[in-house]
């Protein structure tokens, strides 16, 4: 943060804020030193930690915080693909490697503010052998759709009906 402060001081040069304006821009500058109040019914909660909803830097800061987790998955799992958009991840690979990556997310994620929601997690196999169904490999509450899943808005499936249904929802 010190580097940012020095850069901003250099950028702003000799400009002054709030000069001759009662509670003008200077009040805005000093408000950044206080935690915001989030009003809830008859009370409020002090927003003293984390990135607040609507903060334009929120997505960037969240991505920066998650980057070490994504690096850890890359370094420890042999995956075909793992793609992320904020807290939504798609992991493609051998079942054992996918299970290992989910374990990394479950262990490392909470320290970074990411909690794996098993009930929103899905596993899909275009072809299935017995090893993928091995008991204990994946949490029992993980969804296992039979006909396909959506990936980046498109259908991933061998079932023509599922593909047509996803496509028709996009068209209509």
From TrEMBL:
GO terms for molecular function: RNA-directed DNA polymerase activity. Pfam families: RVT_1. The keyword Repeat does not apply. Residues 1-156 form the Reverse transcriptase domain. Transmembrane segments: none annotated. It comes from the Eukaryota. SUPFAM superfamilies: DNA/RNA polymerases. Keywords: Nucleotidyltransferase, RNA-directed DNA polymerase, Transferase. This is Reverse transcriptase-like protein.
């Amino acid at each position: 943060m010190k580097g940012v402060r020095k850069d901003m001081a250099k950028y702003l040069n000799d400009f002054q804020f709030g000069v001759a304006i009662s509670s003008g821009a200077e009040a805005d500058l000093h408000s950044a030193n206080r935690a915001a109040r989030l009003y809830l019914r008859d009370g409020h909660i002090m927003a003293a930690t984390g990135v607040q909803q609507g903060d334009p830097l929120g997505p960037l800061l969240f991505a920066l915080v998650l980057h070490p987790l994504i690096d850890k998955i890359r370094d420890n799992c042999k995956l075909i693909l793992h793609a992320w958009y904020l807290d939504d991840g798609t992991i493609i690979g051998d079942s054992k490697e996918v299970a290992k990556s989910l374990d990394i997310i479950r262990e490392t994620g909470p320290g970074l503010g990411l909690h794996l929601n098993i009930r929103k997690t899905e596993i899909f196999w275009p072809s299935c052998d017995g090893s993928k169904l091995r008991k204990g490999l994946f949490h029992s509450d993980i969804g296992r759709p039979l006909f396909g899943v959506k990936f980046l808005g498109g259908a991933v499936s061998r079932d023509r009906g599922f593909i047509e249904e996803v496509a028709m929802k996009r068209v209509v």
